[in-house]
Structures are given as structure tokens and as C-alpha cells.
Amino acid sequence: MPSNLMSGAQVVLECLQREKVEVIFGYPGGVTLPLYDAIFDGPIKHVLVRHEQNAAFAAQGYARTTGKVGVCCATSGPGATNLVTGLVDAMMDSIPIVAITGQVTSKLIGSDAFQEADTFGITRSGTKHNFLVKNLAELPRAIHEAFHIASTGRPGPVLVDITKDCFTANGHYTPVSSIHLPGYRVYTDGHAGQMRRAAQAMLDAHRPLVYAGGGIIHSGASDELRKLVETIDAPAVTTLMALGALPANHPNFISMPGMHGSYAANMAMTETDLLIALGSRFDDRVTGRLSAFAPHAKVIHVDIDPAEVGKIRVPDVPIVGDVKKVLQKILEELGALADQKEKNAPARAQWWGQVKEWQRLHPLAPVFSNDEIKPQHLMAEIDRLSGGEAIVCSDVGQHQMWAAQLIKFNHPRLWINSGGLGSMGFGLPSALGAQFARPDKLVFAICGDGGFQMSIPELATIANQQLPVKIIVMNNGYLGMVRQWQELFYNNRLSQVQLDTFPEPEKLAGAYGFKGRTVERPSQLRKALEDAVNEPGPYLLNVKVSPFENVYPMVPAGGAVNEMVLGAPQPVEVA
Amino acid sequence: MLQLISVLLENKPGALMRVTGLLSARGYNIESLTVARTMDPELSRMSIVVDVEPNQRSQVIKQMNKLINVLQASDLSEGPAVRREMALVRVRSTMQNRTAILKEAEIFGARAVDSSVEGFALEATGDPEKLDEFIDVMRSYGEIEVTRSGLVVVSLDNKKLRLAPPVPKEVEAPLI
Ligand SMILES: Cc1ncc(C[n+]2csc(CCOP(=O)(O)OP(=O)(O)O)c2C)c(N)n1
Ligand SMILES: [Mg+2]
């Protein structure tokens, strides 16, 4: 039955279709020619990015906004090595993506063939798992396993490296009816006894605090999180990875903890007697100096990855499981113990009084000036336009921190940023993927003038795909975050952080066929942002902000989180 | 502190590298490592000795168990297990001390596996400290050359191997 014969390349696409893939972000090359020949027939949409790193970031933007597996594709050698940053980034933030890379013909492997790189070896540590496929017979299983591994348990990137002869071989798609990975154990249910202990501890606590991380988003546990917070009436912080996991206007939400977290969040972390860690991983940017972190607290730690539980802080109540399932169970337990709800009412009231006092003392409030646009002013205006509903994809730097502090999110999967790896150049391509996934949504890409210049090539993709992304460059003329550290810790010796040259946005955007402009006056900012949003297509708004503003509060590296620096040192009056 | 880890893993290309790569990426130094097929040719057994802070021991095991190709990683530093290492020692001898060398070898339960006018090749098995002593003694006879296997270990525990069951996969044909 020769008519049923398929090429390996067609088998790849058959697998992707069966995995319900809507779009591949990719870039072709020599060994992927057969794959691109099959893509030409159009069963799956392909978006041609302008650099492979951005294919991985765009796939992440897609995955982070939808929760589905994002797919990217690159050729062998330089194509594959260009993907690496995007893979490691996805690994750090537990984002499900599958990367398909081409490899040289199997007979040439190891011969230093043209565009040969040991992709399998290079990407081993930057992926949750990877495959090298040389035979068509193994191909469907590898691809389906890749999707399974990427999307289950703690999600992450998986790479499938496929040799050219495998793409060109003729054969069949052999259906895969089950995945059998005997060493891949995923524990979702949680230990019944520990969950009961957790519920009891939540009722016994005088000063409970919920510390929710990205795991809440991955597991789709926002509703359960909200119910828990309300049931035990505890204040809650969400990490940089979890903004939107609890609606920002929820009365129990006390913002983000950590290096640039809110005063209330960090003080509550320090004073709590029960830290309820849900899908969070005690990152050093959150904990500051460990010996001073949550020193009075018993810790409940829920995570689907057993290796995270006890990695940094040994919990009193460890629970390995899917945080959604675990929270459902704990809520049941709490229901059964409802008669104890009021037992620590006076202590709880005092705790809430204290938390409110911290919030009142040092709120995360924007700063305004009549002379120049303050970065915080910019974020406050974006927040006003978003109303908690827009997708905001951020790059890495000061602007990211101000955005995280001041833009509010009413839902999960609206705040997209590179948290763990902190990859500059993430904002624009991830916005591209996000807008592709959610054409109905207002999508902002908020970039620094540094990170934006790492992503400029993707303006072509955005224009070409007619994606109405609103690109907001917070232009402080510096690699601001590095400048801030040089100012504070290196005697203000500003070494290689000045960005004096920036392309004129009208011309730059104009060169790609869409609109752009600069805004400098505080009084014109609102109108400029509204114009950008009202434009039907993409828009590049270059916002010149005061250059020497620093992000506060700030916990200096290695400091205790309750020893935040709250602002620039004020001149002291000498009597 | 030295930790002894036994790892059962799938005998697949790159699987060994995943284990050793994990150790180096997380900053643990490998003291010794052996690997060979098990009775099931699709599986390999590794014995690894690695230098780890005591409070990090369970973390190493958990990280290894996360590797998709690893079926089971267990800490055998303590608990019931047999631990052995083999050393092959070449020792140059003079005509006078040949018998003394063989006598000494016998005390350590070592045996000669090659003999020539220049000397012997001896094979010794035991726990690492015993082998250290044996090697010291042989050195006193003259120049030696040593190759050690690294520790191999078998657990005497009846720990059940817990494997993930197959998961049904729904992949419908695309609607065309
Ligand atoms: C790829 C990459 N290179 C370097 C860094 C180090 N780094 C962190 S923030 C930053 C400055 C970013 O400058 P800009 O994009 O202008 O943003 P700003 O801090 O000024 O808001 C740098 C260089 C990084 N995070 N990623
Ligand atoms: Mg800047």
C-alpha cells in the first residue's frame, strides 16, 4: 500500500497534530529541509521567527498564556545551540515546551559534519528530558513521550533531536496507545495523614501566611488557593512567578515577597508562625539570607516535585502532590474541622492588625513628578489601561520589578516573565507567542531599552504576522538594574551600563510598517498609551523615564528580608 | 562525607551521562563509579561513591530519581549491603622476594593472575580500606602499578522496586 507511505517528516507532523499542536515557532535549515517540505503542505501553522532563541521564547509565551505545550523548531548545529537559552529558561520556570531539532544524517554523527553539534549532550542539563531519534520506527513514541513528559508532573522543556535520514525515511505512523516510562513517577495525590496535619496546623496557627508560587498557575489551582485563603483568612503573598494566582484586589493579597517585594510581604514572612508554601521553591531571591528567613515559622510545603520539598528549608509538614488536588483535600479537611475556626480569633485579629499596619506604613505606591516620567508612573498608567485583564509580557531588569510591583492581575496566566533564569530578550518574543495564543487579548510587551535591543529582529515577525502587540520600552538610557547595583554597591562607578544610542521609534517601527513614537512629558503619557492601545496593529512606544530611579524596597543580596532598604538614603539634618 | 549510591537505570544511550552530569552540575565530586548491565540486558546498575554534605544526601537521591531513565536510586551508605572493590596490582619483584610477595598476597586473599621474570600481576578483592593496606604492603616490595575498580555494592534489603505504570495515551487521528 504505497499510498499510505509517509516520510519521517510527515510522521513528525502527524504526531504534532495528534497532540493538538496549533502552531510551531521555528526557523529552517539544511537538515530540516525535509521537515519544512512537509510543513509547506500546511497541516500545522508555522511562524517564522527571526532567531531561534525567540522561537523558544515565543513557544514559552504560548505555553505560559494557555497552559498548553508550546512547540519550537530549529535546524542542527547553530539552530539548535541558539535554542539553548530558551530551553534553560523554560526549565527554570517549569514551562512545558517541546523543541524539535534536526540532526545530521545518522551515519555522519561524530564526524564533525557540517552543522553538526552534540545537541543531545548540550541540552541534557537544560531540559527535563531529551531524545535523539535516528529511526523512523522510534519517532512517534519519542514525540508522544516528549509531550507527555513536558506536560505532566512538574512541567518542563523536552527536546527531540531527529536525524536527517529519519526525516527522509519512508514508513508509517505507528499509533502509540500508552506511555510507559517506568522511571517517571509522578505523585499527585498527597499523603492523607500529612494533609490532615496541614489542615490542623492551619487552624492552630496564630500568624499564618500563604506563600504561593508558580506551581499554583501550572496546576490551575487558583480557585482552590482563593478558597483556602478565605477559609483560614490568612494573608497571602504570591511570588514573581505567581502574580495573578490570587486576584490582586483580593483583600488577603499582600503582594509579592523577596528582593523587591512589598514591605508587608517581607515582614509577614519574617513574623509568621506558619508558612504555607504552595508550589513555591524558596528561591534565594525570595528568602534572602536563609538563616533569617521565616525564623519563627513552622513550614507546610506542597510541591509536585519531591526534590523541591526539603531542598532549601526542611518543612514540618511535607506534602508531595499536585497542589490543586492537595488543596481540594485540605479544604475538605478544614470543612470537617469547621468548629475550630474561631479558636484563635483574638490572635488572628492581632495578626491582621499588624499586617494592615505594615501595608499602611509602606505601600507599593507609584511616584509621580511633573518634570519627568517616573518609571512607577508608567506602570501605574499601564495598570489603569489593563484593569487587571491585559496580558503583560515583561523583559528582565528594573522595569520588570516595577511592573510586578504596580501592575495588577485579576487572573493567572496574564503576567508572563522570565523569573528563574532572568533572560533579557524574553519580553518581546514571549509577547509574540502570547498574542498568537490569545488574539482576543490586549498584550503588552514591557521591555527595557537594553532588552528591547536584544529582540529587535522579532519586530519583523510581529509585523508580518500582524500581531497587535503593544511594545512599551521603558527607556532609562541605562542597563538600569546593573546601574542600580553599581550605584549602591560599587561606589557608583558606572561601568558599561550606558545605552546612549537608541533607534528612533517612529523610524524603527516605520521601517517595519507600523507606528511608533517617543513620549517624554508626564502630561502626555496617558494619551500616548491610549493611542498605542487604540491602534489596531502593533505599536512601539518609547517612554523616556528618569534615568537614575532605583527599585525599592530592596533586600541587598545575602541580606535578611526584614532588613529591606525602603528608599534612597535621605540627607540627615545635623543639629 | 562519602555517600554510596546504587542506581538502577535504563540501558539507553546517554543515560549514564545524565547521572554523572547531574552530580557535576550540582557540585558533587565523584570518588568512584562503576556501571554494568544487569540480568535484564535493558537495565544497568551503577554504584557511585560521591562526596556529599550529610544534609544533602537525600537531595542527591531525589534528584537522581527525577531522571526519567533512572528506575531507582538508593542510598546504601548505611544499612544492610555488601560493599566490595577489586584492585589489580602489578608489582616488580627481585628473585629474592618473589615468595615473600606471594605469601603476603595470600594473607590478603589476593591471587596471582600473571607471572613473569619482572614480577606479578595480583588480583585482590575486599573493602576499600583492606585494599589500601594491601597496596601499601605491596609498595614496600618495590615499584607497583594499581588499577582499582571502584566500589560495587549490592543491597541486602528487600526494598520493593516501585515503577510507574503505563499511562493510556489518547492521540486521536487529526481531523482532515
Ligand atoms: C541575557 C542577559 N544578559 C545580561 C543580563 C544581566 N542583566 C540583568 S538586568 C540588566 C539590565 C537590563 O537593562 P534594560 O533592559 O535597559 O532594563 P532596565 O533595568 O533598565 O529596566 C542586565 C544587563 C541578563 N539578565 N540577561
Ligand atoms: Mg534600561
Task: Give a brief description.
The complex is a heterodimer of chains A (575) and B (176). By secondary structure, chain A is an alpha/beta fold.
Please describe what this structure looks like.
The complex is a heterodimer of chains A (575) and B (176). With 575 residues, chain A is α/β, with parallel strands linked by helices. The mean pLDDT of chain A is 96. In chain B, strand 2 (29-37) and strand 3 (43-51) form a beta hairpin. Chain B is an alpha+beta fold. Chain B is elongated. Chain B has helices spanning 15-25, 57-66, 98-107, 128-139, and strands at residues 2-10, 29-37, 43-51, 70-75, 81-92, 111-116, 119-126, 144-148, 152-155, 167-168. In chain B, strands 5, 6, 7, 8 and 9 form a 5-stranded antiparallel β-sheet that branches. In chain B, strands 2-3-1-4 form a 4-stranded antiparallel β-sheet, with helices on one face. Magnesium ion binds at residues 397, 448-450, 476, 478-480 of chain A.
Q: Which word captures the global form of chain A? A: globular
* Strand order within the widest beta sheet of chain A: 3-2-4-5-7-6
> What is the β-strand count of chain A?
20
CATH superfamily of the largest domain in chain B: ACT domain
Main β sheet profile of chain A = 6 strands, parallel
Number of strands of chain B: 10
Quote the distance from N terminus to C terminus of chain B.
61 Å
Radius of gyration of chain B: 21 Å
